[in-house]
Amino acid sequence: MRIALALGFLLLIGCGDGRPTRVPVAGKVLIDGQPLTKGFIRVVPANDRAATGAIDEEGRFRLTTFEQGDGCVPGTHPVEIIALESISDTETLWLVPKKYHQAATSGLTVTIDGPTDDLTIELTWNGGRPYIERSKP
């Protein structure tokens, strides 16, 4: 009986949640040195679920993969920043250059090697500024 209980206890200790290891990650997004005041960040590991976080009015975010604030899987991963506003059915205000909206074109990567609360993502307009895109109705 004691052996069965001990084995059961050991199984419970080693089980975890069955998901990949994650570490808490928080930080800020800047565009041309100023906080990006709205939008979302996505860290996109090649073989794991993406981690996302809302960007607040101070440019701060906290990543979530499965459960609120659980972070991101360790490694070096591409990043995308989604920051736009729908003005009307045919108008969209882009708050960052379009290239940042897809991990494949953003040119952004992060290396997550442990818990952090000061990850900084730096974006630039390269002399541009937010603009309105109009589409046909």
Structure description:
This protein has 137 residues and is mainly beta. It has one domain: Immunoglobulin-like, CATH 2.60.40. Helix content is 13%, strand content 39%. It has 2 helices and 11 strands; from the N terminus they run H-E-E-E-E-E-E-E-E-H-E-E-E. It has helices spanning 2-15, 103-106, and strands spanning 25-31, 34-35, 39-43, 51-55, 60-62, 75-82, 84-86, 91-94, 109-112, 116-123, 131-134. The strands form 3 sheets. Strands 1, 2, 5 and 10 form a 4-stranded mixed sheet that branches. A 4-stranded antiparallel sheet has the order 4-3-6-9. It is globular and about 50 Å long. Mean pLDDT is 89; it is low at 3-15.
List the helices and strands and how they pair.
Elements: H1 2-15, E1 25-31, E2 34-35, E3 39-43, E4 51-55, E5 60-62, E6 75-82, E7 84-86, E8 91-94, H2 103-106, E9 109-112, E10 116-123, E11 131-134
Parallel strand pairs: 1-10
Antiparallel strand pairs: 1-2, 1-5, 3-4, 3-6, 6-9, 7-8, 8-11
Short structural description:
Helices cover 13% and strands 39% of the residues. The protein has helices at residues 2-15, 103-106, and strands spanning 25-31, 34-35, 39-43, 51-55, 60-62, 75-82, 84-86, 91-94, 109-112, 116-123, 131-134. Strands 1, 2, 5 and 10 form a 4-stranded mixed β-sheet that branches.
